Amino acid sequence: MMAGMTIDTETAKEEQRVHDWREAGEAWGHSANNWATLYEHYAIDVMIAIFCRVGMADGVDVLDMACGSGLALRHAGAMGATVSGIDAAETLIEIARDRNPEADVRLGSMFALPWRDESFDVVTSINGVWGGCEAALVEAHRVLRPAGMLGISFWGTGTPNDLRGCFKAFARHSPEEHFGSMKRLNDIAAPGVAETMLTESGFEVMERGERVSVIEWPDPELAWRAVSSVGPAVPALRHTEEAVVKQAVLEAIDHCRDDRGAYRFQNDHHFVIARKVGQ
Ligand SMILES: C[S@@+](CC[C@H](N)C(=O)[O-])C[C@H]1O[C@@H](n2cnc3c(N)ncnc32)[C@H](O)[C@@H]1O
User: Fold this and answer.
1) Where are the alpha helices (DSSP H) in 133-254?
2) How many domains does the chain have?
3) If you take atom 12 of ligand 1, which residue's CA is the nearest one?
């Protein structure tokens, strides 16, 4: 009886986990072409900061967790690394594979990495590891070789925060239960939270840094196509008429237009660099 109960609990947990990553992948992949061509370069500044610190170079084995449509894989490959990636969104994975024919790109969850222990010198994740993603850090630790390096990024809590208005507009037009889950995700930016998650997963934290990332779009139509490609747009677009959400978003970002009518968004972006300790 007890053994059966244990199995049921474990099965339930596993089902939850499988369900969650597939659902997340469907949301993030709902507008893959717009994401890959109009939005994905939003984090270039912080990606470069991470790559400079983790020893990205010729012959280094790198895994990018939550790799999306594979921009980080391309840049790591251009620096000579041997690259692998995993993401929950099938449509983004297809683009990542097209862009990185040499890479080992897999559809799946960063909570259960399909690679053997000690396969990589470096693991990165650009805005893929959030509050509540401790299991992904434990997995990153497992697949890293001893003294392997980890670099992750996430939105900061400070200024500038030009894109925050979009995310708030999406949250306002989503079902209420989404507020709590979005807050938990963003908790990682609070002082000490990422550091605690990393330390408890077996890492030594080397550095926490900040970069202002910049992304631009030439007009409202392209700005809308870009921002509505993000995963958090999906609950809003399912819950509220698209025209209403679009108007709320364009109003929220109107202050980011310059004299030519183009939008320029600047955002506080944080990164943390850590090293694997122990086995
Ligand atoms: C903010 S996007 C970042 C994508 C990419 N790293 C980039 O910066 O362009 C978050 C990504 O995490 C992926 N994701 C969410 N949950 C995941 C999971 N459990 N395992 C793997 N990928 C996941 C989504 O599909 C999405 O591509």
Assistant:
1) 134-143, 164-172, 177-186, 193-200, 220-227, 233-239, 242-253
2) 1
3) 66
